[in-house]
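Go through the following before class.
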Amino acid sequence: MSGKFVTFEGPEGSGKTTVLKGIVSLLKENNKEYLLTREPGGNRISEAIRNIILDTRLVEMDARTEALLYAAARRQHLIESVLPALKQGKLVLCDRYVDSSVVYQGAGRGLGEEEVLQMNLFATEGLTPDFTFYFDLLPEIGLARIKKHRQNEINRLDKESLDFHNTVHDAYLKLAHDNPERIIVIDASLPLSEVIKLTVNQMKIKLPDLFK
């Protein structure tokens, strides 16, 4: 496949979705082909699964059910959206991927990070991003941002305890430490303009042909 696969990770409220919008603006200015997508979601079936996963009314959902639903949505997203774009030589920018399941379900839900990873390796047939941006932010700051700016979009995971989000944050840091060749850590506590600038600079280093 001639395309490049770049994923964006971070705890709730880290601003990665806003940063993605800034990157997309730059790509448009340079007339570059890309696919901007998200997980769970990205196509009709995966978006339907997303609605189930994040429904605040479904408080009785079992942790393994949740993990399996994420993997199912990811599989459909990969086959229907990501792989075709990569085969066409496009840059794929994806808001969350396997790392999210490893930290949220594996660590946060206590299912085991390796167990959740193996489930997702089956779902994705081992497709790994070319590189990943991880936007690091303390959970209490991220949750405060959500409460202030995203009150109408609070989902089932946003409502979890601070202990849950601290566990997720620690698991993200461990992933970044264990995968320094793939995961680029960005300090998301900086002003948004600086976060976007740092991310774009790293993209130019990683994908120099893209911004010629």
